[in-house]
Amino acid sequence: MNVARRARNLKRLALVTIGALSVAAGCDETKAKPPAPTPHVTIAVVARKDVNLSIEAVGNLDGYVNAEIRARVHGVLQAQKYKDGATVKQGQLLFSID
């Protein structure tokens, strides 16, 4: 029974020692953190000059040729009364429909 008691006491002592070391390691505030390194800064001379402004972008364009035209009246188209790409005015006859 003496051996069993000594084994229990050794286990308890080991647990208490490990716990005390863990607490001591976690509460160590005596070590000061090293200061942060100085940041590297580049210096440039400011100069006034003209600069080309441009934008490179991806996009889609749909020309006038591909414009969707929907009929608002019923009939058969007899003639187109304007030239493609020409400027038209308000009230100008565009199509002749039967």
What does this entry look like structurally?
- The chain is built from one helix and two strands; from the N terminus they run αββ.
- The chain is of the alpha+beta class.
- Strands 1-2 form a two-stranded antiparallel sheet.
- The longest helix is centred in the N-terminal third of the chain and has 25 residues, at 2-26.
- The protein is elongated.
- The termini are far apart.
- The model has no long low-confidence stretch (mean pLDDT 81).
Structural class: alpha+beta
Percentage of β-strand residues: 5-15%
Strand order of the largest sheet: 1-2
What is the assembly state of the chains in this entry? single chain
Helix content: 25-40%
Protein topology:
Blueprint (H helix, E strand, L loop, with lengths): L1 H25 L50 E4 L14 E3 L1
Antiparallel strand pairs: 1-2
